Amino acid sequence: METSLVFFSQLSMCEPKEKTIFKLIHGSGKEETSKEAKIRAKEKRNRLSLLVQKPVFYDDTPSSRSGQLAKETRVSPEEAIKWGESFDKLLSHKDGLETFTRFLKTEFSEENIEFWIACEDFKKSKDPQQIIRKAKAIYEKFIQNDAPQEVNLDFHTKEIISKSITQPTLHSFDVAQSRVYQLMEQDSYMRFLKSDIYLDLTEGRSQRPTNLRRRSRSFTYNEFQDVKSDVAIWL
Predict the structure, then answer these.
(1) How far is CA 101 from CA 27, 28, 73, 109, 117, in A?
(2) pLDDT tens-digit readout, 92-126
(3) What is this structure's pTM?
(4) Cβ(148)–Cβ(141) under 8 Å?
């Protein structure tokens, strides 16, 4: 009888420990499940954010951008040599423009060529409402202070554009485009002709992968949804 009492006493003392262990295990499982749910929810929000911010124009992840620039351009050495004759010949050739853009991205100054391309596209506009929309988009992206891809223009030029942006014409950006063109021709183009990107083409060598930075900010789809003509070439 005494032995039985001791046995039940020991069993009674062990029972809280077992319950405690069970609760700890059970509670840990709930906590882990909660953490996993939070992680999954965060991943969903991130994916949704990416879809909202950059669904159409380009994928801005470092791996995809680097992969695009590493893609070999099929250009003959003879054609590449012609690009060295003048800056205009380089920009008038589709592959020349693409290759020069790749080079500017290595120098973190691609906003210059993107602004120039946007201006070329803008001058093809015919509908008055389209002119207003595109002019506003160019101004906000390249011209205004602290624009996400602000180009280097003098105060006077920027002031003239700022005052005329409410009633733009096809020539609203002519002066600014000319200044950016001259800057690229006299500076970036000279370095481009000495770069590995260009020399590899003229000598028929395989293109080398190019390391890029990631953009700090890109326009969202909603900001450009009304600009329906050739906008993708701006980016």
Answers:
(1) 56, 54, 13, 9, 11
(2) 999 999 999 999 999 999 999 999 999 999 999 99
(3) 0.60
(4) yes
